[in-house]
Amino acid sequence: MAHDxxxxxxxxxVATGRTTQRDGAPGHSRRTLxxxxxxxxxxxxxxxxxxCDLFDRGxxxxxxxxxxxxxxxxxAALEGRYRAAIAATPALADRLGAIADTHRAHAEELRxxxxxxxxxxxxxxxxxxxxxxxxxxxxxxxxAEQQGRENAAKACAAAPAERAAxxxxxxxxxxxxxxxxx
Amino acid sequence: MIPRTAPAGPAQALADALAAEYAAIWxxxxxxxxxxxxxxxxxxxxxxAHRSRRDALILQxxxxxxxxxxxxxxxxxxxxxxxxxxxxxxxxxxxxxxxxHWRATLPHTTGTDRNRALTALTDCAVRATRWRRTAGVTxxxxxxxxxxx
Lengths: 182, 149
Hints:
By secondary structure, chain A is mostly helical. Helices cover 76% and strands 0% of the residues of chain A.
């Protein structure tokens, strides 16, 4: 099949161009016929291209990323933020340590559900902690948790039944972090 | 106190959540009398929140033609509630338990119903966190609110 269509692609458009420019042939019915030929050729051209594409990507094509990847990456990034905050302001360790542990537990649990290791080259957001100003630090963490809570709630709403409970717990946990940061 | 067996279907999951809300409302009556000031107000607010969840569940279950379980006259307490400490302890457990029942409804719901269940789970988890803070329990958060151990 690929052979047949390829032949049409090569012959028809060339013939059309020659006819209209060189001959200037006014034959209406002939022009219409040629146009129809060009259309067929264009339509045919798409087929072998698509065919090649499918064939080339074949077996080593990676599976599409799991829809939970962003949430898992966010859990890892949130843990990083808290660790950085604790490093910058050790006095907050008691308050923030358990929350950092929770984000790690979420990342691990999401990884289990996804069933694949984290994709390489997906860097966790570089945590920046405003050293020395606990109020500013907590405000930043609250903002991140608020965003994280919304993301987890959206993921829960869209999830298949078997993932809904875990995502619900993650959304609820992030809401309790907001409370703990007050 | 968190449910360990998954409900069989949506109607059962919602009926279980309703039974948990009945028990929570009853428990807050016991809890409130041992608390004072801000804690007592928080108990009243929590009780009101559970009442409105109860009412919404009764409506939801009856509209969907499901069986609406009846409230009981009283509930057995897991331990004597005689002072502020035991009242706060029970408050934490009640919220975690109710959170567990709402969590169990999530796989059985979709769309608006699931969002409502998630809001209920979240509210319970946040109240449990506040009660832990009031009781001086640390950490005040748990990694997976409502999840059975």
